[in-house]
Amino acid sequence: MTTQADKVVWLTDAEGDWLKIRCQNPKAICSSIRENKSYDVEIKEHREKRSLDANAYAWVLIGKLANKYEIPPEDVYRALIRNTDAYEIIPIRNDAADRWASIWGSGGIGFVVDDMGASKISGFRNFRCFYGSHVYDSKQMSVFIDLIIGECKHAGIETLPPAKLAGMLEAWDA
């Protein structure tokens, strides 16, 4: 179960240390807790999900770039994904490299793997493993859209007027 919290307080009493969290639906959370069970709790900064409009707009522009360069839209998308910072560098054993690339790539069109060569770890290769935009949060998607718009402008492809684009960006950050 997940919820949003906007305040956390640390308390100490005879039983130990406690976190008091102001959140949505605390009764539902408490009712789902079972006695004599241990739970993993993760706290991370909340980010709004990217809007479907952002994804649709990205694919419209990617389609225009694909038409301009006469290549499949998926190839344009993968090339753009490779220009983001949404990746991990992962050392993989040499004998598992092909299997790893296949597994990572099965995550979606944008889950791209680039072999960076030998790792400092003997018997390993480093891979740059990119995430597809469908897992981006609103901030990452905004940066990705800006990248696509930059490519469109370079190619002479018209994009949304700045005022309309600013409105979309505000909606993503709301």
Architecture overview:
By secondary structure, this protein is of the alpha+beta class. It has two domains: 1-46, no CATH class; 52-173, no CATH class. The chain has helices at 26-32, 52-69, 73-81, 97-105, 138-154, 162-173, and strands at residues 5-13, 16-23, 87-93, 113-118, 124-130. A three-stranded antiparallel beta sheet has the order 3-5-4, with helices on one face. Strands 1-2 form a two-stranded antiparallel sheet. Strand 4 (113-118) and strand 5 form a beta hairpin. The two termini are 23 Å apart. The model has no long low-confidence stretch (mean pLDDT 87).
At a glance:
The protein has six helices and five strands, in the order E-E-H-H-H-E-H-E-E-H-H. With 174 residues, the chain is of the alpha+beta class.
What labels describe this entry?
two-stranded antiparallel ribbon; 6 helices; three-stranded antiparallel beta sheet; 41% helix; 174 residues; alpha+beta; 2 domains
- The run of helices and strands is EEHHHEHEEHH
Large-scale geometry: flat
- Terminal CA distance reads 23 Å
Count of β-strands = 5
Number of domains: 2
Strand residue percentage: 15-25%
Structural class by sheet pairing and helices: alpha+beta
How would you characterize the largest beta sheet?
A: 3 strands, antiparallel
* Overall pLDDT score: 87
Number of helices: 6
Unreliable stretches (pLDDT < 50, length at least 5) are none
Strand order in space, largest sheet? 3-5-4
**Helix-residue proportion:** 40-55%
Task: Determine Rg (CA atoms, Å).
Answer: 22 Å
